[in-house]
Known about the structure:
With 230 residues, the chain is an alpha/beta fold. It has one domain (5-224): Rossmann fold. The protein is 45% helix and 22% strand. The chain has eight helices and seven strands, in the order αααβαββαβαβαββα. It has a seven-stranded mixed beta sheet with strand order 3-2-1-4-5-7-6, with helices on both faces. α4 links the parallel β1 and β2. α6 (130-151) runs parallel beside α7 (168-178).
Amino acid sequence: MKPTRTSRAWMREHVNDVYVQRAKREGYRSRASFKLIEIDDRDRLLRPGAAVVDLGAAPGGWSQVARMRLGRHGSVHAIDILPMEPLPEVDFVQADFTSAAVRDALLASLPAGGADLVLSDLAPNMSGVELKDQARVMELAGYALEFALLTLKPEGSFLVKVFMGEDFDDFVRQMRASFAVVATRKPDASRGRSPEVYLLGRQPKPAAVEAARQAVVDEQENASLPEERD
């Protein structure tokens, strides 16, 4: 297929991007690594000994940063439906984290008490239709929020990518109902024209955690009910 004018322009921008060039020079897997680096420099999320879960990890830029900043201690658990080249001392599972069986297996692999930090830089395959892409990003963010509430320790943190747009305010309200502290971050490595921002939630609220757990119980009970026949 012949490249379109738009795709050629994107490729020129990508190749000339300062963060793409830095990633190549410094050995990072993607320019997204610098987004997490900047946020962590400010918020000190990646602490030695922490248990970190990276949702939508491929190609591995955030897992790479997490592993480097945790030092010799702590653990990084990465998951994505896409394949990812192995990273030293990163446990990667190629699976759908929204699956209950996958979630339960990941929970079992975490240290006692759960995760200290859940990261989500999830993004769907972009269609180019703004409203459709924004809705899909926010849907993924909702799944990630549910996962975080089920896995985080009481003092844990959740960093998630969202898109500004129609559903943004509703999701911010969900975050505020779920965490004691919520902040918005727009790192320099995030392209200025991009609608993406990152929401950081700290200290999940007990009521929100209990509601997430009850939703899982209800889902399991409904799944076990026999199907009604006409």
